[in-house]
Write a structure and sequence with these properties.
This protein is α/β, with parallel strands linked by helices. Helices cover 37% and strands 15% of the residues. The chain has a domain of 215 residues: TIM Barrel (Alpha-Beta Barrel), CATH 3.20.20. Strands 1, 2, 3, 4, 5, 6, 7, 8 and 9 form a nine-stranded parallel β-sheet that branches.
Length: 308
């Protein structure tokens, strides 16, 4: 019994070979079947016509914003170094130098200014005609400085003066004679005349020979009651009115102050007329201030350019 239990049961070799062959055949069959069907799909196959899905809307592509740049400012019309704006038209100033005719030397300082000014010559003086002719030769405008009666009867009127008591004919003859001694005159302004210019009759008589010769008239405005400019306009005569007296006080500081006032008025109104006198400090002060006129954009012109 003991010998039988120790002996092991052995599988016949033919049976083992048959089992291996059967296993190989089964494996081949299963592999062939898998290749024939293809891979198994995880989702069920859908039959029939199905429209393709609508494409997803395309979002517009927004380009990236450009790099921030500082704003470009327009160039200034005037460089910062020139603070005053360039005017559309330059302001104009006319300066009349009265009382010429006493000497050539006194008028020389005015004639040598080298800028357009006007010299007003008293009639029938020793140098009236020579000054008038020399000034015209040098391109300086000349007008007649016509003496007219003042309110203060004690003031000397001088030769060639017009008085209120004179007739119209006498006034016209006097003005005509005065103009003959200042032959290059292109206009007239009054010397004194606070009484005479306030009288319409006197002014019409004074202005009659002026109109006949197509001259102009500048009212020196020695009286607030003057009717000179009004009568001249009514008679069709080109006229203007004095704006500033420069040298009632013959002092350099005073004259400079008056010239500065003249500049301010001209810049405000566009034009102005000033009256000074030969033989005073006025011409020399004006000469020293000519650069200031240029800087202010104010042009000196003959008074004939400012009569209307």
């Amino acid at each position: 019994m003991a010998g039988r239990r120790s002996r092991k049961r052995q599988i016949p070799r033919w049976l083992l070979a048959a089992a291996l062959a059967a296993a190989g055949l089964l494996t081949g069959f299963l592999l062939g079947l898998w290749h024939a069907r293809g891979p198994v799909e995880r989702a069920p196959r859908i039959t029939g016509h199905v429209p393709p899905p609508a494409p997803a809307p395309r979002r517009p592509v927004t380009p990236p914003p450009p790099a921030a740049r500082p704003p470009r400012l327009p160039a200034p019309a005037v460089p910062p170094t020139l603070p005053r704006p360039a005017p559309l038209a330059r302001a104009r100033v006319a300066i009349i130098f009265d009382d010429a005719g006493y000497s050539l030397r006194a008028a020389e300082e005015v004639m040598s200014l080298g800028r357009p000014v006007t010299i007003s010559v008293l009639p029938d003086l020793p140098y009236s005609t020579p000054v008038a002719e020399e000034a015209a030769r040098r391109g300086v405008e000349v007008i007649l400085h016509l003496p007219m009666e003042p309110e203060n009867g004690a003031l000397p009127l001088g030769p060639g003066g017009v008085r209120v008591a004179m007739s119209d004919a006498a006034i016209e003859r006097t003005v005509t004679s005065d103009l003959a001694t200042v032959p290059t005159a292109v206009g007239v302004n009054n010397h004194m005349g606070s009484r005479g210019t306030a009288d319409p009759r006197v002014m019409r008589a004074v202005l009659t020979p002026i109109r006949e010769r197509r001259l102009f008239f500048v009212d020196s405005l020695t009286s607030p009651h003057s009717v000179g400019a009004r009568i001249a306009r009514a008679m069709g005569i080109r006229t203007a009115v004095r704006t500033v007296f420069l040298d009632n006080d013959n002092d350099e500081r005073y004259v400079r102050s008056q010239l500065l006032t003249l500049l301010r008025i001209a810049q405000t109104r566009g034009e102005a007329i000033a009256i000074g006198h030969v033989g005073k400090v006025t011409a020399s002060v004006l000469r020293s201030m000519l650069p200031l006129f240029d800087e202010a954009g104010v042009q000196l012109v003959p008074v004939s350019e400012l009569v209307h």
